[in-house]
Amino acid sequence: MATPDRTALALRALARLLDYPSEPLCAAIPELAAVLAAAPAKAGRRAAVQPLLDRLAQDDLIEAQERYVETFDRGRRTSLNLFEHVHGDSRDRGQAMVDLLEMYRAAGIEPSTEQLPDYLPAFLEYVSLLPPAQAQQQLAEVTHLVRAIGATLASRGSDYAGALDLLLALAGEPPLKADAPGEDDTSPEAIDAAWLDAPVGFLGADPPCPPAPGRGQAQPIQIHRRVA
């Protein structure tokens, strides 16, 4: 088997770094830092991920887990489940999940049953196994989503924005720019309202089905929280 190139290794390291904090993750911070320091990106963009590495190395695990949930599991704008930004809660999401899972299995990946196939770290694991040209093509499919998530994180001063900026650098994209501060999108009312936003594309997916006639109100969504 060929030795993974620096981009593939960096993608795997970012997949770990963007996952829910655990004892193995925190123990692997020095190794992840070394891999990301060698990533094929400009020094300034590699350095942007250092605050997150330092925080995960120093923080209590429970605090790191609580911060992760507050960062990614509350509100649509920062969700790492990519199809949430594409299909919302429509029925199209189920078939899209099946199609993506088949792509993973064709590449030799069996995602954890604790996560959905559209979870960004799982997608990065998949991309890291592809030939370089195909990997860049697949990354290009999600850079608009990564940029939108990262810009929101940057506007909130989150250390995780640096990880998403480095991911954009690996995809050959310009640096993140923070969104202008907006309204809080983590309240139940704001979360419901967010699903009325215009859908965006991912891997050639069609937009969600239009609402049925007479349905004038936003429907509640399900947020899948991770268990420590």
Radius of gyration: 17 Å
CATH domain topology: TorD-like
Categorize the overall geometry.
Answer: globular
Structural class: mainly alpha
Largest sheet descriptor: none
CATH class: Mainly Alpha
How confident overall, as mean pLDDT?
80
> Order of helices and strands, N to C?
HHHHHHHHHHH
How far apart the termini lie comes to 35 Å
Strand runs, count? 0
The portion of residues forming beta strands comes to under 5%
The percentage helix is 40-55%
Number of helices: 11
Residue stretches low in confidence (pLDDT < 50, at least 5 long) are: 207-228
Q: What's the number of structural domains?
A: 1
> Under the CATH scheme, which architecture would be assigned?
Orthogonal Bundle
Short description:
The chain has helices at residues 6-17, 23-27, 29-37, 43-47, 50-58, 61-72, 92-106, 120-128, 132-155, 160-170, 188-194. The chain has 228 residues and is mainly alpha-helical.
Key structural traits:
228 residues; mainly alpha; TorD-like; globular; disordered C terminus
Describe the structure.
The protein starts with 5 loop residues before the first helix and ends in a 34-residue tail after the last helix. It contains eleven helices and no strands. It has one domain: TorD-like (Orthogonal Bundle). The relative contact order is 0.17. Mean pLDDT is 80; it is low at 207-228. Helix 3 runs antiparallel to helix 5. It has helices spanning 6-17, 23-27, 29-37, 43-47, 50-58, 61-72, 92-106, 120-128, 132-155, 160-170, 188-194.
